[in-house]
Design brief:
Elements (H helix, E strand, L loop, with lengths): L7 H13 L5 H8 L3 H14 L20 H13 L5 H11 L8 H10 L28 E6 L3 E2 L5 E9 L4 E8 L4 H15 L4 E4 L15 H8 L3 E4 L9 H14 L7 H18 L35 E4 L5 E4 L2 E4 L8 E6 L4 E6 L2 E7 L4 E3 L16
Parallel strand pairs: 1-5, 5-6
Antiparallel strand pairs: 1-3, 2-3, 3-4, 7-10, 8-9, 10-11, 11-12, 12-13
Helix pairs in contact: 1-3, 2-3, 5-6
Length: 397
């Protein structure tokens, strides 16, 4: 109601006073107080029935709800939840429909609302997801074209210690480059073993991983500190789609053999477990015939990369019609007088912005696309997903 900015109650009382003075008509009051004649009559009626308190705001909620859940139904839903605290609304409704079919039970959504009002449902925090990978996969047409890396599921050794086996694998030759037991799947523990493999075998063109840490993050472009390091070395970090292990099928198939031969059951301690993994790798690479390789060994197909690991990690340089900004320690860059968050994984690194349309700028780190900046909204969105080259099915070994 467009009352003037004083106090709604004061305006109503003032209007009633003007009405009781009989100096103004209803039409004049409507014009003076900028409300409809119907509203004037409503407040006069409320004042006549209840005096000044009758002018207070009243609830517009209906006094009865024909579709409201019966109290006994709500109580039974709550009681069932208290007896089965791990059950959600769907299970509760299904159980009640089976055991009390004579009643008409509400939908799961209504049941959820009843439980929330009673404080029996915790609101789930929305989990941030890694942005989708938009580039096509490299083809596995020669050694070192594509490596795969992953952690083969954590497990405890006989002494109770938790271990995370990191595996690195050449997709073309099926050659296992490394299988190391780590205590945590972190950047700090993972990077030294990649560095060791790079020094021994050289650099691949691409490394294909899943979307978990330390290979990816929920930040812009899905980049992590590890994948930023890969890019600076000239390695393309590829990520499979969540829930699609078949896109890294050769690696997954090797993991199955690794588990059967070297981790089922787990060995007594970390040292013994690593020794068993080492024995598996030697047999897999040097002795075991592979069906997909024409019953030959991976060693007969693999050779080290012609790209050696550099003595110093190269810096990222840009050429052409781009604007370069340095990422601050907190992951932000300054852009046209504003601070724009990019990614903490890129702290200290330069990123390039290239104009695509009048208000749209593509953001890149080296050759890796991070997203599209809309200057009008200040939002960065992923670029459209490009068509993939190939999907690797589960392959025979």
């Amino acid at each position: 109601m467009p009352w003037k900015e004083t106090c709604a109650m004061d305006e109503k009382i003032k209007m009633i006073g003007d009405y009781l003075s009989k100096e103004y008509t209803i039409t004049q009051l409507s014009q003076m107080y900028e409300v409809s004649r119907k509203t004037i009559y409503k407040w006069i009626g409320r004042y006549g029935r209840g005096g000044p308190p009758g002018l207070s705001e009243q609830s517009r909620a209906p006094k009865c709800h024909p579709n409201a859940t019966l109290l006994k139904i709500a109580r039974e839903i709550v009681a069932t939840k208290l007896r089965h605290q791990r059950w959600g609304p769907k299970k509760i409704v299904a159980w009640l429909e089976e055991h009390c079919p004579e009643e008409r039970w509400p939908a799961a959504s209504t049941t959820s609302g009843i439980l929330k009002r009673e404080g029996l449902v915790r609101s789930r925090r929305r989990k941030r997801k890694t942005p989708p990978y938009i580039e096509p996969f490299n083809k596995c047409h020669r050694p070192n074209a594509v490596w795969s890396a992953d952690f083969k599921g954590q497990f405890r050794t006989g002494d109770g210690r938790l271990c995370y086996p990191l595996t690195i694998y050449d997709n073309y030759s099926r050659y296992i480059l490394s299988c190391r037991v780590l205590s945590q799947p972190t950047f700090e523990e993972t990077k030294p073993w990649f560095k060791s493999v790079f020094k021994e075998y050289g650099l691949p063109e691409a490394i294909r991983t899943d979307n978990g840490a330390p290979f990816a993050s929920v930040g812009l472009g899905g980049l992590s500190r590890l994948s930023v390091w890969f890019i600076k070395l000239g390695i393309k970090p590829e990520r499979i789609e969540p829930g699609h292990p078949e896109q890294n099928g050769r690696h997954e198939r090797m993991h199955r053999s690794l588990k059967e031969a070297a981790a089922s059951p787990p060995r007594g301690d970390i040292k013994e477990q690593q020794k068993t993994f080492d024995e598996f790798v030697l047999e897999h690479n040097l002795e075991r015939p592979h069906e997909a390789l024409g019953q030959k060994t991976p060693l007969s197909f693999y050779h080290p990369s012609m790209r050696p690991y550099p003595s110093e990690v190269p810096t990222v340089d840009y050429h052409g019609d781009v604007i370069v900004r340095q990422v601050r320690h907190n992951g932000e860059i300054r852009w046209k007088g504003e601070l724009l968050y990019i990614s903490e994984a890129l702290a200290g690194e330069p990123v390039a912005l290239k104009q695509q349309e009048e208000h749209l700028w593509e953001i890149r780190f080296s050759s890796y696309s991070l997203g599209l900046l809309n200057e009008l909204t200040g939002r960065i969105t992923p670029l459209p997903i490009k068509q993939g080259e190939e999907v690797l099915p589960m392959c025979p070994v």
